[in-house]
Write a structure and sequence with these properties.
MutS, DNA mismatch repair protein, domain I; alpha+beta; 22 strands; tRNA-intron lyase activity; tRNA processing; 10 helices; 6-stranded mixed beta sheet; nucleic acid binding; tRNA_intron_Endonuc_cat-like; tRNA-intron lyase
Length: 337
């Protein structure tokens, strides 16, 4: 069947409606079928349609005036060849379950297509995830690398339920001495620190606390600090800690939120992230969590490294976007389509 191209869409006549009925291609109306550019190029390659004056290379050249067309086409082709029917919009694609198609079922995924170096704005992603949720769809990012390989990520705004079996509120108090950003507490005076998952043994007599732990415990009125024998306020200590760690404010907000949900965060340095997170009496950490200031953007390549590492050690990867003293958790999980 022959198509026409108006510079934006490809069009088929009445005979093209069979493509919609059999495979969910295009959008019918007034006896015609309107094809999105990705659909038209795909059908042209498969010799399902003809476009006078165009072969694959010429049409691709024309459509590639849109600099992001080629990556979208790679995703469209991949999903079609995996047995999915899909249409463009409202993000990049709406994808139906296998065996369903437009007019014969509801779309299940909303897919955003990004290149490996594209910046991901976490606030924008969270808004798109919320939109997908309101539409009862699952939000995916399809990442396209420089060699045209595709990786699919399910993205969730994770509300992070409290950890089962954990009591987020303790009763013990302690006194410690600050040595720069590090705090030491006599273990014998506060054995509850190690019992509740705070700090680590410095030697047989002392427990060492990290800056995030210190700030949380000071906020909870469970720790007082001195420096050279003089009392040290929370504000003064944070200034010292910030001199050694420019991310301490966001890390402290994330640590506090996790603790108040019943989790026990510990440093995630060896995993390249702020915290590895324990909870529910589990001996191994369940999550990797990284605090991000509001307005942060990361490349898809950076997110991919984080997700791959987290999955390799059987953990979830959560980014905690900090807005004042609130946290919005965004989870990226690699999936197979």
């Amino acid at each position: 069947m022959k198509a026409t191209y108006d510079g934006t869409w490809l069009w088929l006549g009445q005979d093209g409606l069979a493509l919609y009925e059999s495979g969910g291609y295009g959008r019918p109306g007034k006896g015609k079928l309107r094809l999105a550019p990705e659909e038209g190029l795909y059908l042209l390659v498969r010799k399902r349609i003809e476009l006078p004056g165009y072969d694959f290379e010429k049409l691709l050249q024309e459509l590639s005036k849109d600099p992001v067309f080629f990556r979208r086409y790679l995703v469209y082709r991949d999903l079609r060849e995996r047995g999915y029917a899909l249409q463009t919009g409202p993000h990049d694609f709406r994808v139906f379950r296998r065996g369903e198609r437009p007019g014969k079922g509801q779309s299940y995924y909303l897919v955003r297509v990004l290149a490996e170096r594209d910046l991901v704005d976490f606030a924008c992603v969270a808004a798109e995830v919320e939109t997908a949720g309101n539409m009862r769809k699952t939000y995916l990012i399809a990442a396209v690398d420089d060699e045209g390989e595709l990786t699919y990520y399910e993205v969730k705004v994770d509300h992070l339920a409290g950890a089962e079996g954990e009591d987020p509120v303790g009763e013990g108090t302690a006194r410690g001495e600050a040595f720069g950003p590090t705090g030491l507490v006599a273990t014998g005076t506060a054995p509850w620190l190690l019992e509740e998952g705070y700090g680590k043994p410095f030697d047989q007599e002392r427990t060492m606390l990290s800056p995030a732990e210190i700030l949380y415990l000071m906020d909870e009125k469970r720790l007082t600090l001195t420096e050279n024998g003089a009392p040290l306020t929370r504000e003064a200590y944070q200034a010292v800690a910030a001199g050694a760690d420019s991310e301490i404010v966001e890390k402290a907000v994330l640590y506090t939120d996790l603790r108040r949900r019943g989790y026990a965060p510990k440093t995630g340095y060896k995993f390249g992230h702020h915290f590895r997170v324990y909870g529910g009496g589990v001996k191994h950490s369940l999550l990797l969590a990284h605090a991000l200031p509001a307005g942060t953007t990361l490349t898809m390549a950076a997110i991919s490294r984080s997700v791959r590492l987290a999955h390799s050690v059987k953990k979830k990867m959560l980014f905690g976007s900090v807005h004042n003293n609130d946290i919005q958790y965004i989870e990226f999980a690699r999936i197979k389509m």
